[in-house]
Structure formats: structure tokens, C-alpha cells
Specification:
Chain lengths: 42, 602
């Protein structure tokens, strides 16, 4: 996993959602799954 | 500028106030008039989101306030949630009213004056507030981190379980090795003895056959016992899971009382929005936009040199410009409505997806899982019953073989008999260990996955923490950028005002105002009130110049200016001559008269 790229993508998306004031835990979890965080690490 | 207010705070009847460029002193006989006037200016400038926190701006006995600037109207309904009332501010202030209204209730000004940190206000000047929303106490990022932490805790217990089972497994295997070695030693000895003692061939054959049979039965019985024990464990786990599923369904039912009708309602709302926006709908907003755009285009194309090329009527350039202005304004209003409805549309769709996903995950999936578990439990129970029966059958077989062996042993040498007994004992131990191993192996399989899951959860948790730290860094950076922007402006403004008390004024690294008098740093509480109020307004001016240079108003409350009239005269002159601020407004108390009066000198 290219951590830095993933982090940047995640941040961008999370901030976009925060700006919309529509962000939820559910969406953040989805995002984590989509980015496959943890699954390719090691 | 002609400002008209109606139903704003205490101002009920339509009230017209003429503002001239430069200084405007608003005089009113009681606090309500002044306060209502500033409410009016805020109604002109704040967006709907911010106005929602200020119902007091609208008269208590009215549903809506009307503000008008040079004929441009804004209607703000108390029920600010009604989609039709989403009217845009006439002058955008972008949530930065703290640097416009110098009044006693301005918390930003108060914090500056008291020497308190002002970083929380500076956050509003950049994207920092969005970052902050994510990581603060009830922010979603924090919530996700806590959730992952919790999940990690649960899974970690299971993973630890897996580890201890694995350890036991290793131990049992080692024990098995030792026992097997012992068994081999005894067998070798046995062979030696047997070769010395004459034994009849037929007897020897029967003996080894029986020993072998007994071993097989014992092994089978122990293995079956291990399987039953492990299956019992699995059944218990499945029962726990089933209970969890049932609880989740209950929780879901509590949260979504009537999920189908919720979805139906949302669909209806979407349909309504589609209708409002609709392309096929003649009254739809898309169509309206298209019409206005068409009219703008044709006005631009057809009106030339004083005549309309399409109809031939006289049409001056001024009329054309006026017409285009009206049309563009109409277009802007339609665009704004479209944007707002489209964003609602998105929101409803997200909500439907979310509700459906929750319905599937929390309700349907769990229901299905309960059924699957039910049938699994039944199957496992049946298998265990069958296994018990099999053990019983094998025990009967074992007993008959053991009896037969005893008969044969009676006829052999006592020394060999002793060895045979030893060997048999050892074999029994080995089998018991084999049974244990199969039990451990099966229960290990059940928790093995959590070990893998723990790795993923831990990585996600670490990832979120890293992102949170990044956001914190970014937040600090953004605040510092804003701080530096303010600092860049403070001293130049202070010098332009001709004030000389301080050599330096700046927002320091703790986000407090720090002053330097004659080369010596001074605490803010050492300064006089009027010095501190002046400082506060200078900081506001610095912010305005950096972040709202074109905003037409700057408001000073009488209480603020009263501290040091001479200095404030300079500030007012500065605003008029050195900045793009068109209207400097000072509110003042008037002992007589019951209407608002505007004067143009102090």
C-alpha cells in the first residue's frame, strides 16, 4: 500500500465530506474499506 | 445607499434609512433601535446557515423579516428550513462578521481586549474549521478511531485466545513425541524378549492382531470425543452470535421504526425535487434557467445601435444594460435555487442508500444469519448425537477385544505380560494426546481468522491516527498562516493611524495579542481599557483589510468609541480615506425622539 498517496486521497475526501456537512462514520468506514487500508500492508 | 428594514428586531413598520458614503451616526432613543439596526445589517450579510442561530433578528410577532438595499430585497423567513426561503446575502461576509461589528457582544473583540487566545476565531478565516470538524471530540474521524479501538479490543481477546490455543497445541505435540518415543523403546524391548522366549506362532499372531485392534478402537474413541468437545464449543459460539444478531435487529428496529415508509418518504421527496428541477417540466428550474439564458443571449445579440434587430423597437444601450442586469440577477437566483435543490437531492439519495444499506446489513443479513445459524446448530447437534452413538458402539467392540486379549495373555510368560501391559498403557496415553490435539486444532481454526483481522484493524487504526495527526499539523499551519496575515497588516495600520504608544503589536505564538512599548514587552492587563479597545479595533481593521477589503460596512458601537473619542475620530477618518470601506457606521444613543436618525458627523 502506498501509504502517503492513500492518506492524501483519504484526507481530500474526508475534508470534502466535512465541507458538505454530510460526513458520517459510515462514509469514513466505507472509504477505509475502499482504500483497502491494512489489507495489503506488511 | 437606501436601506429598508421591516420586522427586523424591534423595527416593525417599513423603515427607510439613507446612508451616505463616509461616516453615518445612527441615533436612536433606546437600545432596541440601535440593536435592531445592526441586526438589519447582519440580515443583509449573513448566510442562512448562520442566521439559523439568530431567530432574534426577526421580530417576535412576525414570520419573516425583509431587508432591502437600493431596491434589492432579501426576505428571511423564521422557518429558515423552508427550501423557498433560501435567499442569498446581498453582501457576502463569509462568516467573518467578527471583524466588521465592533460591539460589546463581539467575542473576538472581547478576547483580544482580555488578552485571551484568539485562535478559535482565526479558524473561521481558512479551511481550518472543516479540518476541525473532523477531529474534534465528537468529530467523525475521532469516532471511527474509537470504534476501531473497540473492535481491536474485542478481536484482540480472540486473537490472544488463538495464541494460547496454539501454545497448548505445541505443548501437546511435544508430549506426543515423548510418549511415542517411550512407546518405541518399550516395543523394542518387547521384541527382544519375544525373540528370546519361544512363543507359538499362532498365539503371537493373535496377540499382535488384538493389540492392533484395541489401539484402533481407542484411537477412534478419543478422536471422536475431541470432535464432540470442539463441536460443543462451536455450538455455544453460534448461540452467542445468534443472540448478537437478534440484538442488532432489535436495535435496528428501534432506530428505524418504519424503514420501508422512511425510504418511501425519501423517494417522494426526491420525486418532488425532480419535479421542481425537472427538464420536462415547463415550470421546472432547469427550463427556467434555459429560458433566461435564451433571453440574455437574444438581448445581447439583437439589441444593437439603439434598435432591437428582432422587433425593430427603440432600445437604448442603457435600457439594454438595465435589462441584462435584471436578467442576470434572475439567472443568479435560479442558479442558486438549483444548486440548493441539487444539494438536497444528493443528500436525500445518500440517505436512501444509507438506510437501504443499514436495512440490508443490520436487518436482512442478520435475519438470514440467524436462520443459517439455526440450521448449523441443528446439524452440529445431530452430528454430536451420532458421534456419541458411535463411541458407544466402539466401546462395546473395544471391550470384547480387551477380554480376548486377556485370555491370550494368561498363557504367555509373566515378564512379557508386564511389558505388554506397559505398552498398552503407553498407547492409551498417546491416543489421549491425539484426541486433545484434534480438539485444539479444531478450536484453533475457529479463532484463527481473528488473528488476521486484528492485523487489519490495527493498520486501519494506525492509519486513522496518522491522518488525524496530519490534520492537526495542517490545522496548526492554517492558523499560523492566518495569524501571519493579520500580523502583516497590524503595524502598518497602526502607524497610518498616527498612534505611537507601541513599537510593536502582534499576535504571538500562543495567539494572544502582545505589545512592545519602548522596547519592552508589556502584558495586556497593564494597559488602560481605552488602549486595549483601540488595539482590538486595530486588529479587526487588519483582518478586514486582509479578508474582507471590499465589504462596504464597518460598524462601531458607541460604547466602543466612547472610551477614546480622539483616537476613534482618527480611525473613522482612516476608514473613509484609506480603505475601500464605503460606509462607516457608528451607533449612538439619543435621549429624544422615537425614530432612527442618521447624522454625518460625530
Amino acid at each position: 500500500m502506498k501509504t502517503q498517496d492513500t492518506e492524501q486521497k483519504f484526507m481530500k475526501e474526508a475534508v470534502r465530506l466535512a465541507k458538505d456537512r454530510s460526513i458520517s462514520v459510515f462514509e469514513i468506514r466505507n472509504l477505509l474499506d475502499e482504500l483497502k487500508v491494512g489489507e495489503q500492508e506488511e | 445607499m437606501k436601506l429598508k428594514l421591516q420586522n427586523v428586531g424591534g423595527i416593525v413598520k417599513p423603515t427607510e434609512i439613507i446612508l451616505k458614503e463616509g461616516l453615518n451616526v445612527i441615533r436612536a432613543s433606546n437600545a432596541t433601535g440601535k440593536t435592531s439596526f445592526t441586526h438589519g445589517l447582519k440580515l443583509v450579510s449573513l448566510d442562512n446557515q448562520q442566521l439559523r442561530n439568530h431567530p432574534e433578528f426577526i421580530n417576535d410577532f412576525s414570520d419573516k423579516a425583509i431587508v432591502e438595499v437600493d431596491g434589492e430585497k432579501r426576505i428571511i423567513e423564521k422557518k429558515g428550513l423552508s427550501p423557498m426561503s433560501k435567499t442569498a446575502p446581498l453582501f457576502r461576509i463569509n462568516g467573518r462578521q467578527d471583524i466588521i461589528f465592533a460591539m460589546p457582544e463581539n467575542e473576538f473583540l472581547n478576547s483580544v481586549i482580555k488578552g485571551e487566545p484568539i485562535d478559535k476565531f482565526l479558524e473561521g478565516f481558512s479551511d481550518a474549521q472543516y479540518y476541525k470538524q473532523l477531529i474534534e471530540k465528537e468529530g467523525v474521524l475521532r469516532e471511527v478511531r474509537d470504534e476501531l479501538d473497540n473492535e481491536y479490543g474485542n478481536l484482540n481477546t480472540e486473537a490472544k485466545n488463538a495464541q494460547s490455543i496454539r501454545k497448548n497445541l505445541e505443548k501437546e505435540k511435544k508430549e506426543l513425541e515423548t510418549q511415542q518415543k517411550k512407546k518405541v523403546t518399550i516395543q523394542t524391548k518387547l521384541e527382544e524378549m519375544k525373540s528370546k522366549i519361544k512363543m507359538n506362532k499362532e498365539e503371537e499372531g493373535r496377540l499382535s492382531q488384538l493389540t492392533e485392534d484395541i489401539e484402533t478402537f481407542e484411537k477412534t474413541i478419543e478422536r471422536t470425543k475431541g470432535t464432540i468437545k470442539s463441536r460443543d464449543g462451536t455450538i455455544k459460539e453460534m448461540e452467542v452470535e445468534q443472540k448478537d444478531c437478534k440484538d442488532a435487529i432489535e436495535r435496528f428496529k428501534k432506530e428505524f421504526k418504519n424503514v420501508e415508509s422512511t425510504i418511501e418518504d425519501l423517494n417522494k421527496k426526491i420525486e418532488e425535487l425532480e419535479n421542481i428541477l425537472g427538464e420536462d417540466n415547463n415550470d421546472g428550474l432547469y427550463k427556467q434557467r434555459e429560458d433566461v439564458e435564451g433571453e440574455i443571449e437574444s438581448t445581447e445579440k439583437n439589441v444593437d445601435g439603439g434598435n432591437c434587430l428582432a422587433c425593430g423597437r427603440t432600445y437604448t444601450q442603457a435600457q439594454k444594460a438595465q435589462r441584462l442586469k435584471v436578467l442576470n440577477k434572475q439567472k443568479d437566483e435560479i442558479e442558486m435555487k438549483i444548486a440548493s435543490f441539487e444539494s438536497d437531492f444528493e443528500k436525500y439519495n445518500t440517505k436512501i442508500d444509507y438506510t437501504k444499506k443499514r436495512r440490508n446489513e443490520d436487518f436482512l443479513d442478520n435475519k438470514q444469519r440467524i436462520d443459517v445459524l439455526d440450521s448449523d446448530i441443528r446439524e452440529h447437534t445431530k452430528s454430536n448425537n451420532d458421534a456419541e452413538k458411535e463411541i458407544e458402539r466402539n466401546k462395546v467392540n473395544l471391550k470384547s477385544k480387551q477380554e480376548a486379549l486377556e485370555l491370550v495373555k494368561k498363557n504367555v510368560d509373566p515378564k512379557i505380560k508386564k511389558l505388554l501391559d506397559d505398552e498398552e498403557g503407553l498407547k492409551r496415553q498417546v491416543n489421549a494426546i491425539l484426541g486433545n490435539i484434534s480438539e485444539y486444532e479444531e478450536s484453533y481454526e475457529a479463532v484463527e481468522d481473528s488473528e488476521k483481522e486484528v492485523v487489519i484493524i490495527k493498520a486501519k487504526y494506525e492509519f486513522i491516527k496518522r491522518v488525524e495527526n496530519l490534520i492537526r499539523e495542517e490545522l496548526a499551519n492554517l492558523k499560523n498562516v492566518v495569524k501571519n496575515d493579520f500580523n502583516k497588516k497590524i503595524m502598518p495600520i497602526y502607524n497610518k493611524l498616527g498612534f505611537k504608544d507601541f513599537k510593536n503589536i502582534e499576535i504571538d505564538s500562543t495567539f494572544r495579542i502582545k505589545v512592545n512599548r519602548k522596547g519592552k514587552e508589556q502584558e495586556l492587563n497593564r494597559l488602560s481599557t481605552s488602549e486595549r479597545v483601540t488595539l482590538g479595533v486595530v486588529v479587526m481593521l487588519a483582518g478586514k483589510e486582509e479578508y474582507l477589503p471590499d465589504y462596504p460596512f464597518f460598524v462601531l458601537d458607541e460604547i466602543t468609541t466612547a472610551y477614546d473619542p480622539a483616537r476613534f475620530k482618527k480611525i473613522i477618518e482612516y476608514l473613509a480615506n484609506e480603505t475601500k470601506t464605503q460606509y462607516t457606521i457608528v451607533t449612538a444613543f439619543s435621549p429624544t425622539g422615537d425614530t432612527i436618525k442618521v447624522e454625518h458627523k460625530l
